[in-house]
Amino acid sequence: MRDKTTASFISGLIASVFMNIIDWTAFLLGYHKERLLDWAAIIVYGYLPTSIAHTVLAQLGQLFFSSFLGIIYYLFLAKLSDENHILKGWIFAIITWFGLYGISISVGLPELKAHTFNTTFSHFISASIYGVTLAHTFKKITR
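Predicted structure:
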């Protein structure tokens, strides 16, 4: 794909689907109670989703935001060499995860002021999957 902005957005979307599969699996198995879509819900509604419609819109918002991060990744990558793209994707995702956690705590977003170990660890794994998948997919579709 020639258009790297589109390729990076699509790569972000694909990566976010995998990230959300991990997140939903951990949530449904009872490992944690804070879904990634809850972050989008807090930002869009100011509270956790209270209906299926709220949940669906929050999930779509989360997927869009994560897809947009793919474009940011491309801009970040454009300034660096093409070597070790998987490591760079992982680093990008972990820095983003760490930054978003820091902002949510610093600003005191409702329901996101404190995180359990299980939630934090699960989201670290989800972010790692996102970064690796983002980098791999972007490299593959821009060849």
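Summary: Residues 4-141 form one domain.
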